[in-house]
Each structure stands twice: as C-alpha cells, then as structure tokens.
Amino acid sequence: MTQSNRIKGGVIDRAKTLSFFFNDQRLDGHAGDTLASALIANGVKLVGRSFKYHRPRGIFSAGSEEPNALVQLRRGTFQEPNTRATVAELFDGLCATSQNHRGPLKYDLLAVNDLFSPFLSAGFYYKTFMWPKAFWEKLYEPIIRSSAGLGRLSGKADPDVYDKGFLHCDVLIIGAGPAGLAAALTAARSGARVILADEDFRLGGRLNAETLEVGGANGADWAAGTVSELSSMENVRLLTRTTVYGAYDHGVYGALERKTDHLSDSGGRPRQVLWRIYSKAAILCAGSTERSIAFGNNDRPGVMMAGSVRAYANRWAATPGKRVAIFTNNDDGWRTATDLASRGIDISAVIDTRDRPPLEAPAGALVAMGSAVADTKGRHGISAVTLTNGQTIDCDCLAVAGGWNPNVHLTCHQRGRPEWREDIAAFVPGNDLPAGMSVAGAANGAMTLSAAFKEGHERAGSIAGDLGFKPSETAPPKAEDEAAEITAFWHVGQSKARAWIDQQNDVTAKDVKLSHKEGYRSVEHLKRYTTLGMATDQGKTANMLGLAVMAECTGKSIPETGTTIFRPPYSPVPIGAFAGRARGKDFRPTRLTPSHQWAEEQGATFVETGQWLRAQWFPQSGETHWRQSVDREALQVRSTVGICDVTTLGKIDIQGRDAAEFLNRAYANGFAKLAVGKTRYGLMLREDGVAMDDGTTARLSETHFVMTTTTANAVGVFRHLEFCRQCLWPGMDVHLISATEQWAQYAVAGPKARDLLRKVIDPEFDISNEAFPFMGCGEITVCGGTPGRLFRISFSGELAYEIAVPTRYGDAMIKALMKAGEEFGAVAYGTEALGVLRIEKGHAAGNELTGQTTAQDLGMGRMVSKKKDSIGNTLSERPDLNREDGLTLVGFVPANRGDELKAGAHFVSKGKAATTENDEGWMTSVAYSPSLGHSIGLGFIKRGHERTGEVVQAADPLRGSNTDVEIVSPHFIDPEGERLRV
Amino acid sequence: MSEATLKARSPLDNFHQDFGNLEIREVTGLALVSIATPLGGETQLEGAMASAYKAELPRVGTSTVSGVDDTRFLGLQPGQMFAMFAHDGDRAVEFVSKKLGENGYYTDQSDSWVFIQLSGTAARTALERICPIDIHADAFPIGAVTRTVMEHLGTIITRTGEDTFVLISARSSAKSFLHAVLTSVNNVQ
C-alpha cells in the first residue's frame, strides 16, 4: 500500500523510509512517525475492536490519552499487548497486530455482541448469569473471561531487561510544550539544575502540532532551537520518551524512560528505566487533553479529536481524511478547519453548537451554527454525518472539538482536588498541590500560547529565586493569544443511537443515565458501576463527558456533581519496569559465609537462612539420602569432633565505661558482674516481657564486650540496642558497632575439640580445662601469629569452642581446622546437624523464640533477675504470663519409638478429640536423633513441667496423622551438662 | 601448632575491570577502624587527633585527611568516625590506638567490608542506577561521605577524586554488590 494519505510538510524525516507490519500487511512510514501516524498515512482506518461490543474502532487521538488504537507490538516472548499506537514510535521492522477480535479484524465474529447490547449495559454481570447458581463458575465466568480483555500476553517470561535509577535536580519540569520549554529556559539560565521530562520523542508539545508562530518563527522550529540550547547547558538534563507518572512525598517523582522501545533491537540494554527523581521544586507543564462530545455513533472509525486531526496533518503530514467535517463547541475547532484547508484538505462542514456568528471558515465548507451532529454513518469507517436538523453531510473524517481539559492528573496524587473554571469549562488544579509543585501553562488553564509562555517563564523565575538562584532578566517568548472561546456543550440529547462517553470501556450516555437511575450517583460510584475512566487511558478523553451527563441527570452543575481525582500512574507502567533488575537470583542479595567456597568444593548442599547461604549438610560418596549425611555428621560430633561455620550469628561490639550496666539493663539476667575473660548466656526480653532473642556475650575487658545474637535477629537486636542507647539511656557511655562481618567464626564441637584446637592455636595460649574453663573467652593467636578470639561455649552439648579469626583468613582457617582434625576423623557439619544436636541438648532456637513465648514458657523464668531492672522485667510479671497452667518447653518422644514426629502437630490429652478447644500446645522442633535411634521433639504444652511421663496425642490433622507422644525432659543428651565441662 | 600460616583473601580476589570510560577496582590493602567518641570526650579526642594525626574531627558527611600519614577520617554519625588508611596487616586497631590512646573506642572493621572504587567519566552515570544519593559535583564534593543503600545493601560512599568514588559495602554480600555495580556499568555502556 502506498502512503495514500501522506501530505506535504510535517516534521518527519522523509529521507528515511521505514517498513512495518500491521496484521501482517507490510506498510511504509518515515522516521518521526508514530505507528498511528504511519497507519493514517497509509489510509488505515480500522485498527481494533472495542472492549465489550466489539465495535469497529479507529485512531481517536494523537497522544497517551488514546482509548481505541490499542495494539499488540512485537512478536513471540517480546509481545506486548494494549500498547497505544499513538505513542508507539515507528521503527524499521515494527510488527503490530490488532486486538480483541475472533477471526479477521474486519469480520470479527464477536461483533455479534453489539446485537445483544441491550443485555450488556453497565453492571450487566451483576444482574445476569445469576441462575442457576452452579453455572457461574463453570460456564458463565469462563465464557465471559475468554471474551473479555483486550490483548494477550505471551504467557512466557519477559525477555527484556529493565533497570531503575535515581536523579536529583533543583527544578523538575514535567512536560516540554510551550510552558515547559519557557520554564526550562528561565530556570536553566538562572543556574539551577533542571530536569525537563516529556513523554514524546520530539520535545515541543503542541508547538509541533500547530502552525502558530513564536517570535515570528515557526513554532516547531522555535521548539527545536530551544531544545538545542537547553541540551548544550551542563545544568540541564533532557529526558525524552519519559513519562513522569507519579508525584510522591517530599518532591519525589516517579518517571518511566523508554530507552529502547523505539529500536528494533535493544542490544541487551535496558528497555525501560524507572527513575526516582528527587526535586526541590517541580513545575507541572503537562498541557491539556481534548475531550469529545457525546452523540450517536460517535465511536465510528474516522471520528477523531479535532486537535489530533490537526496534529497528524501539521506534524506528521498524514491526513485522517480527504473530506473532513468539524464538530465543535469552541474556537479551537475552527483552527482545525483552517489548518487542514491550508494543506489542501477538503473541509465539508463546520458544525458549531454555539449560537454566534461563525469564525472564518474554509472556502466551500458548509457552516452550521447552533447545530450539532446527531448521528454518523458508515460501516468500518465514517462516510457521513447527520445533523440534528436531519441534514446529511458526506465526510470520511469527523473532527470533534469538545474543549480542552487541563492535565491535572499529577496535582491530585496527594489528594489534591481540582477546581472548576467556568470560562474554560474545565477543571484546573486546586490549591492543595503536592509540596513543591506548581503548575504552568494549559495544565493550569492558561489555554493560549502566549499565556502558556508567560506562566512557564514566570513560575520558573519565581522558583529559581526562591531556591537562591538569580533569574535572568529575559522576557518570555513572544506569541499571540489565539482564539479560544468556548461554550460548554457535552451531549447531543436528540441523538437516538448510542452515544459513547468512554470508548475504551464501551460506556455510553445511556449507561451513565442507568447508573443515575439505579442510584449510583456520586462520581465515585458512577466510575465503579460503569467502569468509566478505567483501563489504560484512565478516561482522559471521557471523564468530563461522563461527569457532565451525570450532572444533566441530577440537574446539578458540574462542580456540584464533583470529580474523581487521580492517582499514579499517569499512564501505564509495565510491571517489569517496577521489578527492574530484581529478577531471579538477583531478586535480593546473597550473603556468603567465609567458608562458602570451601563448602562448595566439598559438594555441600546449601540452604537460605535469611540472606545467608549456609551449608546444610555435606554429602559424602555413597550417601543417597540427606538423613544419612546428617546422622553421620551429628554422630561424629558426639563421638570425636565436628566443625561448623557459625559466622552468620550476629556479633555486636559493645564498648564504653557503662557497657556492663547497659547489658545489665538490656538482658533479663545479670551482666554487671560478668568477669573479664568470661562468657554468659543472656536472654533479652521485649518491653512487653516476651522473649526477644538469646545469645552469649563475652567480656574482653572492663569496657569491651562482644555480644552474639541469633542469625535471624542480628539486625533487629542491633537496632533495639541502638534505640536503647540513643533514646532510653543517652547518658550512658556505650558504643555499638556490628562486627558480624569482621570475624569468621567456627564452632569446633566434640570430645576431641580441644585436641584439634591445640594444633591450630599458638602454644603460648593454654586452653586446658583449668586455664580455659567452660564459658571462658579470650584473645589468642593461631597458626603462627594470626589474631583470633576463642569462646568456650556449646550449642551441641559437647565440649565445644567457637574460634574466630579476621574474615580474610576465614577460607584458610576452615582448611586449617579440617586438616588439623584429620587425625580425629573431624567432620564439617551443616545447619541440619546443628539443629539435631541442639534439639538433643534441648536448646531453644528460632522455632521456640517465636515472639509469643516468655522466659517462663522457655523454662528460664528464674533467669529474669529480680535484683535489678531490665527491659521487659516488670511486664514479664503480668499474671497471664505466669499462669499455673501456662506453657512449658518440654521434650517429646514417640510412644511407639518407630513413629516419626512432625513439627507443628498440636497436643491433645489422651481420649479427647483433636479440636481447637482441646488444644494444649504444639510441637516446635523435631529431629531424628541418631544418638538415641528414634525421633525426638521439643514443644510447648500446658503445665508441661508437672507432666513428665504422660502420654498425649500429637495431632496433625492437616497432614492426616495423630501420634501418641510421651512427655520427657527437653535435655535428651547429657542432662547434667558433664560433657561440656570436661 | 599448625604447620602453615593462614593466607588472607580479599572479598573479591582483587577484582579489576576497565571499561574505557570507567574503571572498576577492588581496593585492597586498606584498613578501616571505627573510632567512637567517649561520652563527653570530644575535646580530648579532638586534641589527640590534632596532635597525633594533624587532622580535625570530621563533621558527619565529610572527611578529613591526616597531615601526617594520609589517614582519611570519615564522619559517619554523631560520635562515630572511621579511620581509613593503607595497611595490609591484621593489627589495624593497634595503629590507631597507639596514636589516640584512650581518647576513643576502637573496633577493627577492615574485614567487615569490601571496597570498590569506580573511577572515570562514566562513574556518575553508572552510579545513577543504584545510588540514591545526589553525587553531583556540587552536592557531593571531594571528601564527602555518607551512608546509603544500594540494591538493598547498606553502603558507604565517599568521593575521593574528581570522578572517583569508593563504595564500601558488607563483605559477605560483596559478590552481589559487585554484580549490582557491574550491571549498572553494563546498562549504561
């Protein structure tokens, strides 16, 4: 097909011809075209089918407000549905397909829906398909779902790359039309750091679409020159193809930059970048959007917004019709007539709703003042209009000018409410703008070019001054105030055929009336009931019409009827852009232990614990089940020695003259008298008396402690202590810093632990039981002088130590420990064996410290020292936390030793039904104990301390099991603690 | 007694890559020691700094440099600064405590962090993708330092030259952090 509707002029690059495909038909366009302008240039009128009635639809507008021309772009996994052809920049090889039809676009089988329109009015799905009830899920809903929607996703992972970023500026200017360019020039010349963002790929806004002159020059040329000046300034950043979609707190704006959407191949670079822009001030220069008029069959392909028809002719040299009629209620519509006529396009009529003398009309055009279009004719495109007086006028395009709505969207993002201005028959931004935002130009109701320049210039000058810059003494660009008078006219009441309000959602004037009739009269209800203003265009061309028709119904004025406000995003933002680069394994960072590489080399299986990857177990050849590895590791620890990387435990370095007293207040048990060279187990309570975290704290000197926390609570405990230090006790000399990353720390546990350590710790350090007893700690050197720390603490219940060296030596240290342990048959053990060993010993861990359990529940009630005050001390005395029938942590073994226990099972007394009322507690941790040869568990049960020997049910209805278990001591191994003191 | 001494490893095994307009390099051989000011001891610490280092206490967000040995003091929060200096050993605290005595509380942080230096004209462009802080030359002069978050990872950023920045982030997540930096660089190439 040749470009039959391409005319002269425009700002496209005719030297560069681009081929593209629409529904597999190869067409040509030029660089500078959008998909829409190229389709128009090729005479394509029908581009899609409507959402509900599958009515034929054409291009309606020339911007992001487009309700109709939604297409699928690209192919395969790159396919992107619901893309507006009006903002899709043309590139060579672009593939676009129309949406929402069964069979060919022209002969859509579902067009039959239109015949059933009386049954498909607003809210039909609330009223129909109610009977029989069972049919809804199986029949009605699947049918409706398969018919509904517009485009289709590929169903595969998005292959594109996305990114995010952060920008900063003094002044953010949103929109690079006349007001935006004037504002940018003024702000930039003052020396302020300026970001100028515009959704278009060519900056200039309506200057590119009009024939208005600026300072005696063509407006588009002036825009290009201004952009050139701005781009040469170091303090200016121009963001083309960038939509500022949201205004957030403190001058932060969200913006989507389309980096490679206009290229056939992104080359692996991010397709889009989601920017967070931090601004000191922002000027919204988003212009205005033209609105339609509701009349019969106003959705036919070829019925378009008048300003858009003009834009296609002036900017893209593409005419939507050869014989165009104009339907207007304002002066601006006449400009479409004169502009088109000046380009040789035949104007068949100018129909103006106003009773006033006509403006100057093109020669040969019928002028009908005080008249209106009642209906249109044509099948897949308009062929004629019928006026309210019955007169029929032939045309292949109807340009509708219903007036312009300032783009107030971003002014509403923090609940700002627009205000009605009668003189322009539109809402303008109210006074409650987001902090730091001001509005200039058409977005503020300054609807003429001269006024827009003036506002942009003045706003920017004033803001630059406020920010401490010296505005230049220049005047705003010179332009005329074009005719812009309007008399509001919304709806042709004489139309018998359906009059579309919202073309994207197939909402008609009749639907709005129905909404009123059924009591959904507030604008918010109207929106939800009819779906007016939803979907990709967010009702940019429709909302005002719907509101006006509702006002007609209620007999109220438009401001009395109210308006909906807007929330982000201004136009659709792909979910992929929000995800950015955070996909797959890059979703979040991974923390690796110092022995990670070594563990990988040993073939370890890893488990995520928070952000950490920890070795879970170390399979050896011949082991086919994880339990074999874990049993071996646990048994070896009990019989000889094992080594486990425990670096992930939080380590907090605490120093200061008041450090001991600080700990005394933070821990429930006493720490003031902990001797230098000693370690103590500590339990920390929350203010409400519930257990928060536990760990050991070592005293390295009078003023220096090292606290360990659980891996999971490392950050939380640090934060809590900082709060205590800064807010509760600011008069204390205490200083905290995390040392978790500083030390590679290994647990060396088992009867041979000391023997092994003697081989790595330098001989001048005596680690005999007498010199370095249980709970001792000290600074040492290892392997010939490397500094280290040694703690004699045990999680496993065996003779055990934790040895720490600076992390840089972590890799070498695990190798040194394993080598030193060879003669003892030392094993590396992972988190599973660690868990088995601690359950056998009866130590509480995260499963027991749930944030709901108390020291009393944990069997550590007596640890809460009453000789001092500490956080949580008082509230731990609340009666309900100290009930006689309170929970107690005890051990459980299966009555039938061969049974397997499951964590999460609930305890019910024998003979009672497994119901919530009979629930007496739950199993927190279970393991297979290789030492005992059967399953064991820890759990909380009411009055557990006095029920040793009782058999209860461990009911697990979710997994369909119920096991008899015997209550035993939680210390399955070495209850007297003899092993760890040898 | 062990047969062999322990061999130190840097978090990224001395990573280095040159992109032409940007060079990414793991900085090794640096010591980092946190210095906490004893409550009420600011004047004494200030005096010790002046005499031992010929340096002022840095205000939060700025750094000062020793007139004696190029040690850079990073002002990170009220009552806490980091001393950053060339030192390849594992006794960094001793160096500082010898000079400042009991006028501060010292904690070795040398092994807690990875140091990644970005230098070149594309440094700011690349950092725009992960750094929420305004690092424009006017807003973040040479010597400026601040804590921030990059790709969910706590990061200290300091500007050490016209187009040179050092990013300091947790050692355990050094590989993820490097990946974040390299992704940023690749995304703007």
Give the terminus-to-terminus CA distance of chain B: 52 Å
Which term fits the overall shape of chain B? globular
Number of helical regions of chain A: 20
Hey, roughly how much beta strand do the residues of chain B contain? 25-35%
Shape of chain A: elongated
State the fourth-level CATH superfamily of the largest domain in chain B: Probable tRNA modification gtpase trme, domain 1
Radius of gyration of chain B: 17 Å
Strand order of the largest sheet of chain B: 1-2-8-11-10-9
Biggest interface reads:
A-B, 63 and 53 residues
Oligomer: heterodimer
* Number of beta-strand segments of chain A: 50
Largest sheet of chain B: 6 strands, antiparallel
Structural class of chain B: alpha+beta
Percentage beta strand of chain A = 25-35%
Distance between the termini of chain A: 94 Å
CATH topology title of the largest domain in chain B: Gyrase A, domain 2
What is the CATH class name of the largest domain in chain B?
Alpha Beta
Rg of chain A is: 38 Å
Task: Let me know the average pLDDT of chain A.
Answer: 95
Fill in the keyword field for this structure:
heterodimer, A: 982 residues, alpha+beta, six-stranded mixed beta sheet, 20 helices, 20% helix, B: 189 residues, Alpha-Beta Plaits, 2 domains, six-stranded antiparallel beta sheet, 22% helix, globular
Furnish the topology, listing elements before pairings:
The complex is a heterodimer of chains A (982) and B (189).
Chain A: E1 13-22, E2 25-31, H1 35-41, E3 48-49, E4 56-57, E5 70-73, E6 80-84, E7 94-98, H2 124-127, H3 135-147, E8 162-174, H4 178-189, E9 194-197, E10 213-214, E11 217-218, H5 219-231, E12 236-239, E13 242-247, E14 252-258, E15 272-284, E16 288-290, E17 303-305, H6 306-314, E18 323-328, H7 331-342, E19 346-352, E20 366-369, E21 373-377, E22 384-387, E23 392-394, E24 397-401, E25 404-406, E26 419-421, E27 426-428, E28 437-439, H8 449-466, E29 500-502, E30 507-508, H9 509-517, H10 523-530, H11 543-554, H12 558-561, H13 575-579, E31 591-592, H14 596-601, E32 605-609, E33 612-617, H15 626-639, E34 642-645, E35 650-655, H16 659-666, E36 679-685, E37 691-701, E38 704-709, H17 714-728, E39 735-738, E40 743-749, H18 753-758, E41 777-782, E42 786-791, E43 800-806, H19 810-821, E44 827-828, H20 831-841, E45 887-894, E46 906-909, E47 921-929, E48 934-942, E49 951-956, E50 961-968
Parallel strand pairs in A: 1-7, 8-9, 8-15, 9-12, 15-28, 17-24, 18-19, 18-24, 19-20, 31-33, 34-44
Antiparallel strand pairs in A: 1-2, 3-4, 5-6, 5-7, 10-11, 13-14, 14-15, 16-25, 21-22, 22-23, 26-27, 29-30, 32-33, 34-40, 35-38, 35-39, 36-37, 37-38, 40-43, 41-42, 42-43, 45-48, 45-50, 46-49, 47-48, 49-50
Chain B: E1 16-18, E2 23-26, E3 30-36, H1 42-53, E4 63-65, E5 72-77, E6 80-86, H2 92-100, E7 105-108, E8 113-119, H3 123-127, E9 145-150, E10 153-161, E11 164-170, H4 174-188
Antiparallel strand pairs in B: 1-2, 2-8, 3-6, 3-7, 4-5, 5-6, 8-11, 9-10, 10-11
